[in-house]
Amino acid sequence: MLNIPKTTLFLIQSLDGKISTGDVDSLDVDKDFSRITGVKEGLYQYYKLEKKTDIVSLNSGRVMEKVGANLKNTSDVKKTIVRFVVIDNKPHLDKEGSEYFSKKAKIFFLVTTNKNHPAFLLLDKYPNIKILFYKNKIDFIDMFKRLKKEFGIKRITIQTGGTLNAEFLRLGLIDRVSIVIAPALIGGSNTQSLIGGKSLHTQEDLKKIRPLKLISNKTLKNSYISLTYKVINN
């Protein structure tokens, strides 16, 4: 058994499993669901549940860019108890976005392979920035081990995109899945789903499929559903 924090994948999706409203970054569930009649009325329940998730939140720089982290006003940011872990190589977070998380988070963990990431420029100013640097490719098993061993993190809520979700799942790094299903059908073969990544091709690949055990099934208001599963990692 891996000595890593307990992890929960927590996201909102449509009934057909889409975690975005389209295949371009300008389309986003957080912004767009609030505009759709029949969906917007019950959306508040997702954010209410989100407030009850772990105080350590793992996300990607791309997702943070999509939700406008680089455009936040850094002069008036309230510090929270949340520790943010952001995986960002490109980078998607610019200096302003990195500073926003530095001010907002109790600890801002940046995981990157980019030695020129803007967050490096903020290290002297913000001692709460912790950078986990990998030279070529991020070793996600090592990353989770370090977060537990070096920083004492015991639980993490994962809210990344479909590609990273798939990689975590294949590596056996997701313990639970907590999903809020919105009453909508989105469609689109290129629109991100909860688990993306490469498709399976062979009978041998079937061992990568992770069975689930239902823990709770709650019918919410306005035709929303909340499902929680335990992931069976063999």
Question: Could you walk me through the main structural features you see in this protein, from its secondary elements to its overall organization?
Answer:
- The chain is an alpha/beta fold.
- The protein has a single domain (6-231), classed as Dihydrofolate Reductase, subunit A (3-Layer(aba) Sandwich).
- Helices cover 20% and strands 24% of the residues.
- A 9-stranded mixed β-sheet has the order 5-4-3-2-6-1-7-9-8.
- The chain is globular, with a radius of gyration of 18 Å.
- The model has no long low-confidence stretch (mean pLDDT 96).
In short:
The chain is 20% helix and 24% strand. With 234 residues, it is α/β, with parallel strands linked by helices. The chain has a single domain, classed as Dihydrofolate Reductase, subunit A (3-Layer(aba) Sandwich), CATH 3.40.430.
CATH level 3 topology: Dihydrofolate Reductase, subunit A
CATH architecture: 3-Layer(aba) Sandwich
Number of strands: 9
State the helical fraction. 10-25%
For the biggest β-sheet, the strand order reads 5-4-3-2-6-1-7-9-8
SS class: alpha/beta
Structurally, the number of domains stands at: 1
